[in-house]
Amino acid sequence: MTSGTNEIQMNGPEIAPEPKVPSSLYGIYSVWRRHALIYKRTWLTNFIPPITEPIFYLLAFGFGLAPMVGEFSVGGQQLTYLKFIGPAMIAVGVCFQGFFEAAYGSFIRLKFQRTWHGLLTGPLGFREIFFGDFAWATTRGMIAGVITGIVVLLLGQITFTGLLFTIPFILLGSMVFAGIGILVAGLVKTIDQINVPVFLFLIPMFTFSGTFFPRENLPRAMSVLASFLPLAELVDLIRLPIIYDPTWPLDLMGLLAWTIITTALAYRVIFRQVFR
C-alpha cells in the first residue's frame, strides 16, 4: 500500500476492460442472441413452414389469376397481376412472421417457460429483456420479408435496386408487427385468446389492405378506413418502386406512429405482469 493513499497495487495479468458499449444495448443483444441460437437449432421446422405461406400466395394467385386478369391500371401504371401482388406478399411475410413470433413466442416465454423471470435473476433488466424480444421478432419479420422479396426478384417482378429500396420499409414494418404482437402477448390471458386478434384484426387487414386488389375498388368508407391499417401503409411503401404515390410520407408517419404507440403500450402492459 502506498503511503497516503488507499490504492492497492496488484501484480499479475491485466484484466481486459469491458467493451465500450452501453450495458443496455449489450443486454438487448444478449437476449436477441439467445433467441437466435435457439432458432438456429430448430431453424428447419421454424423457418420453412411459415416462410412458404406468402410465397405460395404469390405463386398461386400470381400465376392462377394473372391470365384471367391480364394487365390493369393502378396509380396510372399498367401492371400485370403478378407484379401487383408481388410487393404485397413481401409485406404479408413481414406481417405474419413479425406478429406471430412476437405474439406466440413472447407469450410462451412469458407465461409458460417464464424465460423473462429467469433472465431477470441475472444481470439483465426488464428493458433489455423486452427490447431483446422485440428485436428478435423484428428480425423474424425481416427474414421473411427479404426472402419473399428475393423470390419476387427471381420472378422478375421487382428489380434488385427496387428490392434494396424497400429494405428500410421492411425493417420498419417488422418493428410495427413486432410491437403489435408483443402487445397482444401482454393483453391475453391464455394462448388460445391470441386467435381473437388474429381473426378480428390480422385476417381482415390481410384481405382489405390492397394485397390482392386495389383498395380503390372498395366502397369509399371501407377504402379510407383500410388505408390507415399498418399493412396497407406497408404495402403502399413497398410498392413505391413500381407505383409512385406522392402521399407516401403519410404512410411512413403512420407506420412510425403504430410502432411507437404499440411498443409503448406493450412495455407498460408486460411490465405490470412481470412485477405484479
Walk me through the topology.
Layout lengths: L22 H19 L1 H27 L1 E4 L2 E4 H32 L2 H6 L5 H29 L5 H28 L7 H14 L11 H7 L3 H9 L9 H27 L2
Antiparallel strand pairs: 1-2
Helix pairs in contact: 1-5, 2-3, 2-5, 3-5, 3-6, 3-9, 5-6, 6-9, 6-10, 9-10
Count of extended strands: 2
Q: Give the termini distance in whole angstroms.
A: 49 Å
SS content category = mainly alpha
Uncertain stretches: 1-22
Q: What would you report as the Rg, rounded to the nearest angstrom?
A: 22 Å
Specify the helix fraction band: over 70%
Proportion of beta-strand residues: under 5%
The coarse silhouette is globular
Q: How are the strands ordered across the major sheet?
A: 1-2
**How many distinct helices?**
10
> How many structurally independent domains?
1
What's the rounded overall pLDDT mean?
A: 87
Oligomer: single chain
Described by strand count, sense and barrel closure, the largest sheet is: 2 strands, antiparallel
Q: Write the H/E string, N to C.
A: HHEEHHHHHHHH
